[in-house]
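Record 1 of the preview.
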Amino acid sequence: MARLEPHIAWRYLFSKKGHNAINIVSGISAGAVAVVTAAMICVLSVMNGFGVLVEQMFSEFDPVLLVVPTEGQTLHTDTLPIASLYAREDITVSMQLEQTALVRYKDHQLPARVLGVDSLFTRTAHMDTIITDGFFSVWDGAFERAVLGRGLAAQIGMNAHFTGALHLYAPERTGRINMLRPDLSLRHEHAFIAGTFAVNQVEYDDQMMLVSLPLAQRLFDYDEHTASALRIAPKEESKINHLKSEIAKIVGPGYKVLDQYEQQEDFFRILRIEKLLTVLLLVFILLIASFNIIGSLSMLIIDKRESIRILSHLGADERTIRRIFLLEGWLISALGTACGVLLGVAVSLGQQHFGWLKLGNGTEYVISAYPVHVEPLDVLMVAVIVLTLGWVAAWYPTRKMKDER
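->
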């Protein structure tokens, strides 16, 4: 009997019904499920595409791993256990010192994030891919240089070809402020612009400038062994999680080792929340579409009342008959799910390779078309959700079959 139930349900799915409207409603039900399933896969794939795109942008600048103190703003590289990192041959360790300073060029002035970097910085960041004008240099052997975010350079009114000095001011960290002459309590440094960069993220492009580490240490009144973080890049491809755990053991509980996701934790958390809310909204739409399955299955039960009576006389109990129609409703949902998955994956892969849907006129944004990245786990999750809701929608009319008989 267990094999008979799917066989009868399959025959009912494709056999001619007593009323043509039942076939139409069943087709509409499967079609609605297919459209919503495809929409879920396409929307999630586009959101994944934007996530991968922004992740790539951040990875051009952010190091593979970042060591920061758990308390305070600075760490000292001449003390253990930090100093032991420099003894490892499988990683490159670069110092950085980041704080806020006032930047002035002629009549323009504004606060900026000043990031002091050492000579190993370029081994931990792909600056050659994000330089938009000029070149990367923070020290040319004679003069201090600066590389500004493209937005910051525009706000302050300069570009890579200007020859005027860029002035930086920061308050004395250890001295007292002269209330009569507050300007005398500011430390002052200057640098000449070498180039501009763009990560296409506001917190970098509109707020950050790169200078040499010694200049930043002088400006913020720190010694040569003080930094705000250590940038770490493996010299060879390796398992990042394993390397992260090793470094965490070396530096101890006084420091945190952050991977690229943790360095941008707020952004990726927001992205996950947006993705969850999108799934919930589409599930609600799917729930509405599932009412078609309830309607078509209810009509089918009424249409097959004579067949139900014959099955009862042949020995089929009420539970068996309910299973037949439960499978029938679920098959409608499964058919829609299969078509929707194929359609959604096909459209997503087509957009990924051919870029059918453009962003604006193709020149206003970082990319010309909507980015797409198909995640197999997302496809599986969508299929499970749709099939589960289809099973629930099929269960509702079958539980009242006793009244229909």
